[in-house]
Amino acid sequence: MMPQRDILGLTSWNAQWAGLRTLVLGLGVSGFAAADTLAELGCSVMVATPTADTAKREILDVLGVELVLADLDGGVPDRVIEFDPELVIVSPGLPPAHPAVRWALESDRVVWGDVELAWRLRDKTGVPAEWLVVTGTNGKTTTVQLAAAMLAAGGFRAAPCGNVGVPVLDAIRDPSGFDVLVVELSSFQLHYLGDISPWSSACLNIADDHLDWHGSAAAYRAAKGKVYEQTKIACIFNEDDQATRELLENANVVEGCRAIGFGLGIPQPSSFGIVDGIACDRTFVDDRHHVAQELFTVDELAAVGLGGRHMAANALAASALARSFGATVDAVRAAVLSFRADHHRTELVAESAGVRWINDSKATNAHAALASLGSFDSVVWIIGGLFKGTSPSELVRAMSARLRGAVVIGTDRAVVLEAFARHAPHLPVIEVDTLDTKEVMPTAVRLAAGLAADGDVVLLAPAAASMDQFRDYADRGEQFATAVNDLLGGYADDDESSAFPQKP
Predict the structure, then answer these.
(1) Does the pLDDT at position 171 exceed 80?
(2) Global pTM?
(3) Is 114 exposed, middle or buried (0-12, 13-18, 19+ CB in 10 A)?
């Protein structure tokens, strides 16, 4: 390997990046953004990935980026070794045990994720935007979008980015520039996170997830805990989730940084909470020991598709983040009243014969599914997919009293069927065993309709990843909505698609 330059000293867009031999592993959304950014900096860039569509190939060719198509599971190909990269950017989908990642680490190359690269380059458009960073097992996207909307309503140039859809590297290169970025970080991105110092940070909740990627529950939680490191102004934790408090207590933060709790109970000083159905701030007020500032009501949340205890918690966390940066109470309230929840998140698809059909395809883990199921009293549950080393056993046990029946999809059906046999043997449970992926959801919807009665909710909250039978969670949700509308003859109450009654 050729001698390395001082790569760790590259901490500005205006640093000497030109000619730096850089390898990007993977060509997903973040990998492509990394290759594009590095090419703009004048680096010598290579991308190694198993596949690439025609459009990306053509763009990389125009950018002067070398593309190496190879199955990286067997290690890096000879061409990559010959290229001898000085810096390796790892796409977040590649675990640390992946052969290509191990090769980079064991050969003493500098290895970063896309987030660390973006942090180093954040001065491209002038004065760097401050970062508010958010993680958690469930609720990240809603919280990030809400916080960004609150800040924008307050007159700040704000943007949601990161794992929420817009790569953070694209956000820091936006020529218009921003005052503040609200950055969603997955546990994968946090694992590769380097030294950043956000304005404020939040961990919404913790439940075991992605254990196959991280290797253990301890490693997963350690990755999540990185979100609090070197935070300057406010670390926001969930008072109803002790694990988030423990992660904060173990973090190294900037002196003077405040710990701010949020929860569904009456707020204590320096926290956000709910009193008689009203969300309140007892942190950013003049006399927090005696005064609580009203923000919005639980009923107002439900009216914009944010009903349910988990959504109220997300709204409180978003409020804490936005208020920490200076958003006014009026801005917070205005953003809530105009907000519309994302598709595939507790979204009403249709209502017919007293049965509501709810799409929560984004409930890709047990924690998210628990929150979703807890919002309804009588549920026909469509569950299943890839469980990523976790088990739905405790989820089934906890929610069995709310269930009328279940329809099981996905390739990991055995673990689901075992959970129902152990914890809810009295419930009707039907397995969808078709190998035709186009028939999975129509079959599941038809079987669920046979179990549902007046007053029930048919809920797609799979508690599992989708890639075994669908392109992604959005594809899974769209196929569910299509199957429901086909079954009901095209009926769907569009006016109620994002506003339905749920228990607070």
Answers:
(1) yes
(2) 0.73
(3) buried
